[in-house]
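Dear H.,

Thanks for agreeing to be a second pair of eyes. The structure we're designing against is below in token form, covering all 263 positions.
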């Protein structure tokens, strides 16, 4: 098992259990899809020779090229939409999904990577574990980023459950309609413990409402499906700095993801 900590020690530990069969499952699914496509094509032509269902060298090369382009994590489970579960395991640390930041232990955790080329605004992941399914919520997962998700109802990790036998399902996937931006040409945003400092860099007023969206982060990981929001009503005067208090902000454990400015 691996152990994850952030620079400031905000997240005590996340100990994912590796899924060595995940990559093989993903490859098998891809090959099955290719075979099905070939079967359908052969049926349309009236050709029933089963030898035609085997992908040839050029088709295999094309499949490998697609996977390399998507930066498929080794040993992962493909959810579709460019999402891959790279780890599953127990988590101990701050429970951030409901904003409480309570210190909990042995919470069921997924680690998910967005290997696609689109920023995901929302998605729901479900593990069918029987009477009580586990579910995880993604908000604001940029392309190329990896996120640690905690079960939304604080379900505990059960060492006797064979999680590898459960295929995660994803639903309600939504992408950002427009490219996200930090508006760095207009605003300077500084994160300090418990507050954000927002400065208007322009020589003219910003009259619209400013909303800053940020998440818990440590090194190369985003922590929690939750995304925090800070709102500045009435805009900012030219050169004005305004400090907004927010208890979830940390100079070592937060990252600004995007900013919106309404007209």
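And this is the sequence the design step returned. I haven't edited it by hand at all.
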């Amino acid at each position: 098992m691996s152990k994850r900590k952030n620079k400031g020690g905000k997240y005590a530990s996340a100990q994912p259990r590796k899924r060595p069969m995940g990559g093989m499952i993903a490859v098998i699914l891809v090959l099955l899809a290719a075979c099905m496509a070939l079967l359908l094509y052969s049926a349309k032509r009236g050709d029933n020779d089963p030898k035609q269902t085997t992908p040839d060298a050029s088709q295999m090369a094309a499949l490998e090229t697609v996977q390399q382009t998507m930066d498929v994590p080794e040993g992962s489970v493909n959810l579709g939409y460019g999402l891959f579960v790279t780890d599953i395991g127990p988590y101990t640390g701050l429970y951030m999904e409901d904003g409480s930041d309570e210190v909990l232990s042995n919470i069921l955790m997924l680690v998910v990577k967005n290997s696609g080329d689109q920023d995901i605004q929302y998605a729901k992941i479900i593990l069918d574990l029987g009477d009580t399914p586990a579910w995880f919520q993604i908000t604001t997962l940029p392309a190329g980023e990896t996120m640690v998700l905690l079960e939304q109802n604080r379900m505990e990790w059960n060492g006797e459950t064979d999680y590898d036998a459960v295929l995660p399902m994803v639903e309600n996937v939504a992408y950002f309609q427009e490219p996200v931006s930090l508006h760095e040409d207009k605003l300077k945003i500084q994160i300090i413990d418990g507050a954000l400092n927002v400065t208007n860099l322009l020589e003219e007023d910003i009259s619209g409402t400013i909303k800053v969206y940020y998440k818990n982060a440590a090194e190369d990981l985003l922590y929690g499906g939750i995304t925090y929001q800070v709102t500045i009503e009435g805009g900012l005067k030219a050169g004005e700095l305004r400090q907004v208090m927010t208890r979830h902000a940390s100079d070592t454990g937060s990252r600004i993801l995007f900013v919106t400015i309404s007209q």
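Two observations from my side: Confidence is low (pLDDT under 50) at residues 1-9, 15-56, 59-69. The two ends are 49 Å apart (CA to CA).

Warmly,
E.
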